[in-house]
Amino acid sequence: MVDSAVEADSRDDASTRAEPMVAVYRHDVHKLRARPHASAADSYASVPVNETVPRDADRDAALLSRPAGEPEQTVANHESPYRLSLLTGETAATTERIKATTGGGFRALVTPEDPECLHARWLTSEVPAAFNESVYYPYTSLQYHVLLTAALLHNYRARHAFEDLFLVATTPDVTPNADAVSTRDPKTALAADAVEPHRTVLWTPEMTLHVTATPGDRPAARLGDVPARSFADVWSRLPAHPFDTDGERRWRLLDAQLRRIRSWSAALAYIDEFIELHGSAAGELEGDGA
């Protein structure tokens, strides 16, 4: 289904077998299967996959995270589909994630026909977090590349150009469970007021980020005139951030790092990992508050 809030035109609807906002979440299934694009299958689990994303949204999302032109290996001895973590320097592919993938555990990210369900699953799943978006750039994230591609496509289908788009930063309305740890699952994401279908690209207990042409009165910064590895610049232009950099050392450290990371998918993965390790639910960093 097409989000009722979006008056999407139909010029791209015939270019994919699946509805475009479904196809976008399936366009890189070959990477989840550790296969090159040349060997990409047309279908998986009886649904069409690996289709070209309309309106060049995939190309534009790639330009947000990696350079244009002929790719070059940037990390020696790591020509692997598994992502390297900027936070730890280690591979992000845990044994559990590898088992889930090899056992077909990513079917939940592919088979639904409801676009909003697919968005919620990509937003909350740990499985695609194990993969990079290009073996040449192992610190990039397949999970966040797909979410960025979907956000761009959703905006483009609503007749917005790239130059119309903003990064919006908010504090999420998370749901605490009995252990006071925020619940992050597809069902909760679908019900959360803080999650905008397709346009929310990061949802954590501490902060939520959106790519949208309609920021309203929320803290926002323009993405720029053309897609580029500009996360650090855009983050630095936000008029306010969703955490207290004056009060806690952990947030000063995160803010300082985000002012350096240019790749969008790498930055989003860094935030996700940092908050998992050092967020409020994880306890204080040594020297926090100093």
From TrEMBL:
Residues annotated as domain DUF8168: 21-284
Superkingdom assignment: Archaea
One protein family per Pfam: DUF8168
Name this polypeptide is given: DUF8168 domain-containing protein
